[in-house]
Amino acid sequence: MHPVVQEVTERIAHRSRESRAAYLERMEAARRAGPGRAKLSCANFAHAFAALGEGDKQRMRDPFAPNVAIVSAYNDMLSAHQPLERFPAIIKAAAHEIGATAQFAGGVPAMCDGVTQGRPGMELSLFSRDVIAMATAVALTHDAFDAALMLGICDKIVPGLFIGALSFGHLPVIFVPGGPMTSGASNAEKARVRALYAEGKATREELLDMEMKSYHGPGTCTFYGTANSNQMMMEMTGLHLPGSAFVTPNTPLRDALVAAAPKRAVEIRDGGNAYAPMSGVVDVKSIVNALAGLLATGGSTNHTLHLVAMARAAGVQITWDDFDQLSRVTPLIARVYPNGSEDVNAFHAAGGMAFVTRQLLDAGLAHDDVMTVAGPGLRRYQTEPFLQDGKLVWREGTAVSLDRDLLRPVDDPFQSEGGLRLVEGPLGRGVIKTSAVKPEHLVVEAPALVFDDQDDLLAAHKRGELDRDFVAVVRFQGPRANGMPELHSLTPALGVQLDKGFKVALVTDGRMSGASGKVPAAIHVTPEAKGGGPLSRVRDGDVIRLDARAGRLEIRVDERELMSRPPATAAPHAYGFGREMFGWMRAVAGPAEEGACSLFEAAA
Questions:
Q1: How far is CA 48 from CA 39, 140, 144, 200, 503, in A?
Q2: Sheet containing 67-72: which strands, arranged edge to edge?
Q3: Residue 221 annotated in ligand binding
Q4: Could you report the per-residue pLDDT of 401-425, keeping only the tens digit for each?
Q5: Rounded to whole angstroms, how far apart are CA atoms 76 and 178?
Q6: Is residue 42 annotated as involved in ligand binding?
Q7: DSSP, residue by residue, 267-308
Q8: Which residues span the domain enclosing 497?
Q9: Number of domains observed in the structure of the chain
């Protein structure tokens, strides 16, 4: 192992010693209790399969016969989740082939950040993760299952399913993805038209036509944002069948992978020789592996929130310092849009996850000695699935990149460090995604322009007031202020000013996006402005220095003077779009560095 990776792993293990032991003790107690349906009264038991067909009823009469739960985030509003409509039938048929049953245990909500970006509904987005976690627990709480399959792909959905399933971590759990949509219009052309529209040089009809050519069919959006970072991490944590992440929907190979999931889930249930509970798969080393994958591929900044909360649900305590220290020794070996010009389909074709996994293992940047749903060892994930005479098989993936403009080996990376960096200073602590930022923009020093709402910044842009060097401070966007919406709609406007040659940066206690791009942005800044954090005391004209190289977030104002200023106050919280129902989550949400989660704080 690389000595820094080993050091960070040991530090996390030491920090997590008590919380991890307590979690494992709970999971072992649940395992010892046995399948819940074996303890049900006859009336309760009959309820559990009253609506099944006669064949399934006869199987279910045996309280120890394998029964697999399906928890799905299907809806046809999300292109990525529309293919999930077909999956339960495939899963049930596959379970029948091995004498098992599968039941649709429950559905969880799934909202699309692409639809709600810049809209009031985005203020529900982050906390939808916690709602999904709770809904997953509701689905599994019937305690009638030997294993579970999680059907979900996108931004908050996989983290929510992950957190919820860990409450039932004595069960084997396999995540079943749907895959990316086929490639549409080029990312360069899409970015060009978006920039023209931001400058008023393209019509709305021209913009919509381009967006429809980009987002044109079933599957995940093909850029490397949070949804596809989720899929990468499920491979690196060993919760997918190997190579599942980026196989396109509605293809024979995708259907074969879906059918294989319940069969493997039954094989690794308690009572067999290959028992692989989720509580064993998700441990300190697999979380470090997920971190390594995130950094090596320039993955989503959202996971500086989500992965912290996901790990915590398994009793594993990680911090932004762990991200930062690992980033300094993990080379960036992938450039997928918005970090590069090509999409995840090109990444998959160039070698994809099998190549990335092999590189990280060979360099000692990831742990091989882990439990996975496919068996012991992460090396299983340097293989790729294929159909051979109609049968699903796995072969070794390519050991060399098939496109070095997109994917490179560890010894010849795009950058010597990973794609994320911690920044800190008098304004607090935040993170910056450096993988898409040109070297000349990694250090920005300029006067602040302060906004308490993203719409105010966009209005200033339209009025032509941003033709200058500036650091945009967009505050009162943290979890306790308004639910921490993504501010990705700011990217085109800020990018236009950057392209004009101005020094431009963003500092915010909000989120940017898994698609954070070329504008240097210190995001998730904590303490947040609500409650009197330093951002609440910044004024227009204060000189701010964002130095991603040195990891500093400075303000050229004496700290005593800064903190003596009266803090600005947030506007009263808006109603509508269901936001009023999430007030309790905002009130108890933890800080960004602890995952901005309402569940753990409420439990405490």
A1: 12, 12, 8, 59, 62
A2: 101-107, 67-72, 147-151, 173-175
A3: yes
A4: 999 999 999 999 999 998 789 999 9
A5: 13
A6: no
A7: HTSTTSTT---HHHHSSHHHHHHHHHHHHHHT--TTHHHHHH
A8: 420-603
A9: 2
